[in-house]
Amino acid sequence: MESLAVRPIGGYFPLTLVQGKEYYPELIRLNTSRNALEYILILKGYTKVYFPYYTCEVLLEPLIRLNIPYQFYKINPNLEPILDFEVGPTECLLYTNYFGLKDAVLKQLKATIGNLIIDNAQAFFSRPLPYSDTFYSCRKFFGVPDGAYLQINTDDRLILEKDHSADRVGHLTRSIDYGIEHSYADFITNELCLKDNDIKSMSLLTQALLRGINYKECRNKRIENFKYLNDQLFLVNELELFLPEGVAAMMYPLLLLKRDIRSKLIAKKIFVPTYWPNVLKWTGYKTYEHQLARYMVCLPVDHRYSLNDMEYIVNVIKKII
Ligand SMILES: Cc1ncc(COP(=O)(O)O)c(C=O)c1O
């Protein structure tokens, strides 16, 4: 008689994770957000992409791979596109929802630019606008090795192989045992592993990790921490951008022109990333984008931190400036 049992019974216990719900169960699950961009470009067949100077260079990977021409565009001090060009009917504009703070402009852009691609890699909690092509990158907000979500305004789908992440979680597991600083080199190795990969669907491991997150708590923490930092720092912040409240932003962007506080913060073990080192290569010294990349420090507001931590950060900054 043929056995019906496919699933093994018994054996050792696998890792047990909380079986909750993903934040975007209805969206397409992919391995990285640069590949979500590639997914859109393949299905939409755009002939040219208007691409911000102020963004992460890995997003050029799909354009190079598909041999699609691109033209850089500038942003204004509100971090909105300077639209001194026309997006043709077979062309598209890629816009980054900077730090998750630009929800309001997305609707406007969507209404004026037919072929808009929204990069919500920095805006995990900003739900996609209906009928918009929008992608998310999970590890910018949570301890996962990879993973992206995509909403695409077409019923067409690519048939994809599934990714496997089991060999890329070393930095996440080791950080629990040894601390985050100890595993930083492994984190960088993982980032490099994500370069130039094929589009694949999200691994079961990443999906399982994403099911175990308490999204409500994570979102609320970000909102609370962001508000605290803004209340304390808005008077010194030279960013002209209006900072909305009640938004679960990725980070708190603090611009202090002509003052290098980044290295001083890092010396105090407040690790602030540079967004983005490639912008320093792509743009002239006097451009706004260059100034943002040079002087803006992005302070963490995520679920790892309490208001006490925010107070500590503010005190360190006030002593430095
Ligand atoms: C704004 C932005 N979009 C997209 C990406 C790419 O995300 P992923 O690594 O998931 O491809 C990055 C950087 O990694 C980014 O900073």
What report would you give on this structure?
The longest helix has 19 residues, at 215-233. Helix content is 34%, strand content 13%. Helix 1 (33-44) packs parallel to helix 2 (60-66), helix 4 packs antiparallel against helix 5 and helix 7 (215-233) runs parallel beside helix 11 (307-320). The chain folds into two domains: 28-211, 3-Layer(aba) Sandwich (Aspartate Aminotransferase, domain 2), CATH 3.40.640.10; 215-320, Aspartate Aminotransferase, domain 1 (Alpha-Beta Complex), CATH 3.90.1150. By secondary structure, it is an alpha/beta fold. Bound molecules: pyridoxal-5'-phosphate. The site of pyridoxal-5'-phosphate has 14 residues, from helix 1.
Number of strands: 9
Strand content: 5-15%
SSE sequence, one letter per element? EHEHEEHEEEHHHHEHHHEH
Mean model confidence by pLDDT: 95
Q: What does the main sheet amount to?
A: 7 strands, mixed
How many structural domains?
2
Basic shape: globular
Q: CATH fold name of the largest domain, please?
A: Aspartate Aminotransferase, domain 2
Keyphrases for this structure?
7-stranded mixed sheet; two-stranded antiparallel ribbon; 9 strands; Aspartate Aminotransferase, domain 2; Aspartate Aminotransferase, domain 1; single chain; alpha/beta; binds pyridoxal-5'-phosphate; 13% strand; 321 residues
Concise structural overview:
By secondary structure, the chain is of the alpha/beta class. It has 2 domains: 28-211, Type I PLP-dependent aspartate aminotransferase-like (Major domain) (Aspartate Aminotransferase, domain 2, 3-Layer(aba) Sandwich), CATH 3.40.640; 215-320, Alpha-Beta Complex (Aspartate Aminotransferase, domain 1). It has 11 helices and 9 strands.
